[in-house]
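User: Um, what's this?
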Amino acid sequence: MSLPFFAASLRPGLTAGEEVTLSGEEAHHAVVRRIRVGERVALTDGAGTVAECTVAAVDKKVLRAVVGSVVSAPPESPRLVVVQAIPKGDRGELAVEMLTEVGADVIVPWAASRSVAVWRGERAAKALTRWRSSAREAAKQARRAWFPSVEEPVSTAQVAELLRAASVPVVLHEAASGPLADLPVPGRGEIVIVVGPEGGIADDELAAFAEAGAEPVRLGSSVLRTSTAGVAAAAALLARTPRWR
């Protein structure tokens, strides 16, 4: 059975026998899950380090645990970046949750010209906070040693630059002639997947991406929602890399 998994601040060079403290919301989660003294838990800093610990004390505000072992995992390769056009409602958070579970390393909100939802001012800050919270919670659920980063929203020009620098630039489009399955996938470098909005990627955006070296590809005969297309593409590509072997 998998150990309960929590996010914690772990100091560099942490070793067995040291005591670590879990506080705030994570300690509250431990209380809700009825974690008791003597139980073993796994704590991660979300930056590659996972410590297996034995709980020494727990209350509503603080959990203290003694480290039994520490494992540091290197970042996985190839790196997966997903540029997600901002969808309406809570579909953005759903996309972030699933992309995190499938293995995205970076999630980039894109203000596409046909995006129904528009992030501005306080609304943008709140929406970005929700995306980041979704990524953090999904990473814990998936027991990831490395939590994905959710970046600030980007423009079409910035998306084009991400594609230009990618080892595998991917632009999903239902009308593309070439299938995603035909793309070569190296065992290292960076995969960048661009997912359009509900209204589709505009012609001028497709032209900017093509100029950056990314011709559109299709997933298959079905047209997927913006909240699920990136997940399907990520899974299809990662299955052909060492990350899923």
The domain at 79-244 is CATH 3.40.1280.10 (Alpha/beta knot). The first helix runs from residue 24 to 32. The mean pLDDT is 94. The first strand starts at residue 5 and ends at 7.
